[in-house]
Write a structure and sequence with these properties.
Helix 1 packs across helix 18, helix 5 packs across helix 6 and helix 14 crosses helix 17. The chain has two domains: 223 residues, Glycogen Phosphorylase B (Rossmann fold), CATH 3.40.50; 160 residues, Glycogen Phosphorylase B (Rossmann fold), CATH 3.40.50. The protein is α/β, with parallel strands linked by helices. It is 47% helix and 15% strand. It is globular, with a radius of gyration of 21 Å. InterPro entries: EryCIII-like_C (IPR010610), Glycosyltransferase_28 (IPR050426), GlycoTrans_28_N (IPR004276), UDP_glucos_trans (IPR002213).
């Protein structure tokens, strides 16, 4: 049995797959701890793994709002986002320090591995140096690897002082070569299949592409009666799935709802942030703060979403076509890959024209090839095999054989 410390940050797509990974590792006999946002404590504990909160619910809400404001401030600007200010306002340097301390408290020489989310999981790299433990970085999407040179530059110019101060607390020198350091994990895992990788610019050969990893347990449940009645009353609606974060704003909803109106479809709108939604909503729109996607998505005619990895994976395993209104980060690359696979159409935020979005949605709904290809690729997704492959990849870096 090994001690595995997982650290991740962000929203559902970044956290739920890590919880599922922790569940799979625990089932193989490992002692697993996950350090992430307080909101995900109940989900982690239900998975049977130890949970350490990196913030409070109030701090997490502030972090999401600040990230949204940071991105909104650079719309139409060539300047980089104020990443240093974001870190300072939300005590993210302190959070990195606390994550390293979690590893320190659980470190068992020769039997410990730390697993961090790619790019934001700097604590995994620091802990690897400080305690001599192997580090694994897990990327959610190919773009995290493709954008690494840019991220290394931003970290060197914006975040170096804060990161180096944390390193000094653990007796480590400043980072000398940021691209090399951010590429220095002992193992790189990608949570997407090889055929998804081949649909765009390939990621480096050393990335272990294990497949999509969804958290069925966290996304399952009985649909509410209002939705059950809606589904029974006519043809399948279109699901407009907003981010679990606060990254989307009015143009997304304008384009998405107009597209559904043009297609003549009822709309199921899911967003945990009602303050971000149009008010009032059109009569054909039914809003829910959340839904059990495992049961609900297969009953939709199509899904409009922002390009999050969790949502696209759920659409694929459900065999449902997708319209991706990609906002930022990895989402344009993700949308382009889905379109090349023939399971989706996509638009960047600069082209969120309601008429164009409507044309694309009608195409998705009326041309059977999109649903057929979605079902074909979805059938190739084996969630259990992905979890097993990810666990084996992590176990491969342990200095002693794992005792199962």
């Amino acid at each position: 049995m090994a001690t595995v410390v997982l650290t991740t940050h962000g929203t559902n797509g970044d956290v739920l797959s890590f919880v599922q990974l922790g569940r799979a590792l625990a089932a193989r006999g490992h002692d697993v701890t996950i350090a992430t946002h307080a909101r995900y404590g109940p989900t982690a504990r239900a998975a049977g793994i130890e949970f350490v909160a990196l913030d409070t619910e109030r701090e997490y809400v502030r972090y999401l709002a600040d990230a949204r404001d940071m991105l909104d401030a650079r719309v139409g600007s060539a300047s980089l986002p104020d990443l240093r200010g974001h870190y300072e306002r939300n005590d993210l340097f302190g959070q990195i320090r606390r994550e390293v301390e979690v590893v320190a408290r659980r470190h068992r020489p020769g039997e410990t591995v730390v697993v961090g989310r790619h790019t934001s999981g700097l604590s995994a790299l620091i802990a690897a140096e400080a305690f001599g433990v192997p580090a694994v970085w897990v990327a959610m999407t190919p773009a995290q690897h493709l954008l690494l040179p840019v991220q290394a530059h931003v970290h060197r110019t914006e975040l170096a002082a804060g990161v180096d101060a944390v390193r000094a607390d653990f007796g480590l020198p400043p980072v000398g070569d940021w691209p090399a350091w951010m590429s220095g994990a002992d193992r790189q895992i990608g949570l997407w299949p090889k055929w998804f990788d081949a649909a765009g610019t390939p990621t480096p050969a050393e990335v272990d592409r294990v497949g999509f990893l969804l958290n069925d347990a966290a996304e399952s449940g009985a649909p509410p009666a209002e939705l059950t009645d809606l589904l029974a009353a006519g043809e399948p609606p279109v699901l407009v799935a907003a981010s679990s974060g606060q990254m989307l704003w009015e143009p997304f909803y304008t384009a998405a709802l107009a597209a559904c109106r043009r297609a003549g479809r009822r709309v199921v709108l899911v967003s945990p942030h009602p303050e971000s939604l149009p008010d009032p909503l059109p009569p054909e729109v039914t809003w829910f703060p959340r839904l059990p996607y495992r049961e609900v998505v297969p009953r939709m005619a199509a899904v409009i979403h922002h390009g999050g990895i969790g949502t696209l994976g759920r659409c694929l395993v459900s065999g449902v076509p997708q319209l991706v209104l990609a906002h930022s980060f990895d989402q344009p690359d993700t949308g382009a890959r889905l379109q090349r696979l023939g399971v989706a159409r996509w638009l960047p935020s600069t082209r969120w024209d309601p008429d164009l979005a409507g044309e694309l949605l009608v195409e998705l709904l009326t041309e059977p090839r999109y649903a057929e290809r979605s079902r074909r690729f979805g059938a190739a997704v084996d969630l259990a095999a992905t979890a097993a492959a990810a666990c084996a990849s992590i176990e491969s870096v342990l200095p002693v054989p794992a005792d199962r």
